[in-house]
Design a protein that fits this description.
This protein is of the alpha/beta class. The protein is built from nine helices and nine strands.
């Protein structure tokens, strides 16, 4: 029996776009089935793949199977899932992730506070071929996981992580859902739709909070290809582009507040420790790790500068709208 009382009902949404992840998708669904606090609904949204949709329909009987009726991509698929949810809380799990048995229990406990709009949890990497020696834990955001430097206890944050997040349903409908101009499309590694929707949600509800609960854990599969330096730099460039697009909607200050702290505090320590470990002979990969941190930061910055130079209107903005009004407050 759950140790939490009056736990709100939850719908879990899992989005998928390829049969190549079939086994992982089934493992994700299984991890939801074994929750200590079971959801009222589990919804799998298929993003424009009729073969995958048909296979699910004929294979899985205890899950709501839907085709994406919105724009192609992760944001559109998530919005389709939100539209089908019948509960007060909607949680999202990636199709290549597995939730710990108490995942929903830990996450929903945070909604005892009516000021909490969204709750996210820790995402641990499940490396297919082991963590590369040059891949610092401070860079785990590259593979959609929690990075070193995030809070170790439940705390207010600016945004949640897409592989492990939940929102009040009324919040998602109130802000109009996820911005379909942002987010991953097939294998194109764009993102930041979670950042943008969290900022908009707090702006629309002064005094509210987004919470990170590191005890609500999922394990996220990381294929060997995503540990390569080529992928790291490609993802860093895309992150810079995505952050630039978000800054056009919500303003530069709101889009980059936590990133400034991350660059000032977390990354210098990662570089220092890498060089130190190499110098004392503790870790022969330390110097490579430090150099990779610097390279990722440089490429992300270049991507951001390039994104700010893109012509046209900000994504999600009305014609002529540039950034958020000065009265909108920054969240941490």
């Amino acid at each position: 029996m759950s140790r939490y009382f009056d736990v709100p009902d939850v719908s879990v949404v899992i989005c998928s776009y390829t049969e190549d992840r079939w086994d992982m998708l089934m493992a994700a669904v299984d991890s939801v089935r074994t929750q200590t606090v079971p959801p009222r609904q589990t919804i799998v949204v298929v993003d424009y793949n009729s073969d995958l949709y048909k296979r699910l329909i004929f294979t899985v009987s205890d899950v709501v199977i839907l085709e994406n009726t919105g724009a192609k991509g992760l944001s559109g698929a998530r919005n389709t899932g939100v539209g089908a949810a019948t509960t007060g809380i909607v949680a999202f799990l990636d199709d290549d992730a597995q939730a710990a048995p108490d995942w929903l229990e830990r996450m929903t406990a945070m909604y005892d506070d009516p000021d909490v709009l969204a709750v996210g949890g820790r995402v641990d990497p499940d490396w297919e071929a082991g963590r590369p020696g040059y891949f610092a834990p401070e860079l785990d955001w590259i593979v959609g996981c929690s990075h070193r430097g995030l809070p170790k206890v439940a705390a207010e944050v600016r945004n949640v992580i897409g592989a492990n997040m939940s929102f009040r349903s009324e919040v998602l409908t109130g802000v109009g859902g996820f911005n379909t101009a942002l987010g991953r499309q097939d294998t194109l590694p764009l993102g930041c739709e979670e950042t943008e929707i969290c900022i908009r949600a707090v702006i629309g509800s002064p005094g509210s909070r987004i919470v990170y609960e590191p005890e609500a854990v999922v394990r996220h599969f990381v294929p060997a290809t995503r540990g390569s330096l080529k992928y790291m730099l490609s993802r860093a460039w895309s992150e810079g582009i995505s952050k630039a697009q978000v800054s056009k909607v919500v303003g530069h200050k709101r889009a980059l507040g936590p990133e400034r702290r991350y660059v000032r505090r977390v990354l210098p320590r990662a570089v220092f420790l890498g060089v130190k470990d190499w110098l004392v002979g503790k870790d022969k990969d330390g110097l490579r790790r430090a150099a990779t941190v610097v390279a990722v930061l440089a490429v992300t910055t270049c991507g951001y500068v390039q994104g700010r130079r893109f012509p046209g209107e900000p994504v999600g903005a009305e014609p002529g709208q540039d950034a958020a009004p000065a009265s909108w407050r920054e969240v941490s």
